[in-house]
Automatic annotation (TrEMBL):
Quercetin 2,3-dioxygenase C-terminal cupin domain location: 144-225
Protein's name according to its UniProt entry: Pirin family protein
UniProt-annotated binding residues for Fe cation: H57, H59, H101, E103
Domain of life: Bacteria
UniProt domain Pirin N-terminal: residue ranges: 10-119
Lineage: Bacteria, Pseudomonadati, Pseudomonadota, Gammaproteobacteria, Alteromonadales
Cofactor binding notes: Binds 1 Fe cation per subunit.
Cofactor: Fe cation
GO molecular function: metal ion binding
Coiled coil: none
Family: Belongs to the pirin family.
Keywords in alphabetical order: Iron, Metal-binding
Annotated Pfam families: Pirin, Pirin_C_2
Amino acid sequence: MRYIRKAQDRGKADFGWLQSQHSFSFGRYYDPTHMGFGNLRVINDDSVLGGHGFDTHGHRDMEIISYVIDGELAHQDSMGNQFTVAADEVQRMSAGSGILHSEYNASKAAPAHFLQIWIEPKLKGITPSYEQIQIKQSSALTPIVTPTGAQGTLSINAEAEIHRLQLHQGQQIELNAHAQKAYLHIVGGEATLDGEAFQQGDGIGLIAGDNMQVTAVTDVEALWFLLLN
């Protein structure tokens, strides 16, 4: 049976400056039936007002990916990194043995919209590290994160891959779950997945050996996770 997570059913947090929607249990939102999918632990869909952000806080033993959709994020951490992450860029932070960081909307006026993704690590207690890249779309399905950093992707201390899917209206693609589990999160647009309507914020999980026909109703962008444990 497939795991279906509709956008309207996600957990929600409203802090005024931050509007966050949680695909899986996070912070004050807890639902034992939605604790993650495989080693994919968090997908938070965050909108941050200009001039606001997350003050310095700590993480440990988690692979944290920020995927910027609109605007820019200003990142600073205890390793001395100070970077701005722009739309279409992807950032990976391996928290490992422990790291402090802050993340702010780089603009004082315009909002920023991004996904924060947590994946459980393969090895615990590693030296923290940071990496940031922009990856051009080379095909409808383009790898952006892999365990080895192959093909110019971000490397990750986890048994997982992330691919960015971009389809124009009317285009189709078949996705195959050639991993223990796979998960598709719709970043923007509308699509049918084996004939069922999905839109921005919706997600669907598959198990090994399953496949799915994706048809773009509008131009669509999505993230396809291959979860190897």
